[in-house]
Design a protein that fits this description.
Length: about 150
């Protein structure tokens, strides 16, 4: 991505337990099928939008290619054994449970669309991570060139 220009970095943090993008729901009304985003997903995408807007501070969305790193820091389960809990806090044990990492990325991309970048088609590289943390949050790091 670096074409002789130092890349710029924008980091957005959404506090609280991350919410993965839910599957679209289908309903019928007047004999027509209609797909809609589940309410929990829509609310979380709104939180992502608010955090992204705050971070952009009135600046226009970035144009051109971007690299995105999405890290979902999920709560450590209370039922996790002490030995595993310590490993999770130290970053040695990662969540291998549902929801899938890509669904966290989808929620982040949809929430940032039109705010951090004009369209998520600009994302040329995407890194997604799930980690445990005592401080659950979603961190979106965007690198772009001028």
């Amino acid at each position: 991505m670096n074409r002789g220009v130092d890349p710029q970095l924008i980091v957005v943090t959404v506090p609280g337990a991350p919410v993965a993008k839910g599957r679209p729901r289908i309903s019928t009304r007047g004999g027509f099928a209609r797909a809609y985003t589940p309410a929990k997903t829509a609310r979380y995408e709104d939180l992502v939008r608010i955090a992204a807007c705050d971070r952009m501070n009135g600046n226009s969305p970035v144009q051109g290619q971007v690299t995105l790193c999405v890290t979902a820091y999920v709560p450590i389960p209370k039922s996790m054994p002490k030995r595993d809990r310590e490993a999770a806090v130290e970053g040695l044990k990662h969540p291998v449970t549902r929801p899938d990492a890509d669904n966290y990325a989808k929620a982040a991309l949809d929430g940032c669309n039109g705010i951090l970048f004009k369209d998520d088609s600009q994302v040329t590289d995407l890194i997604v991570r799930k980690r445990y943390s005592d401080r659950p949050r979603l961190v979106i790091s965007m690198e772009y060139g001028e």
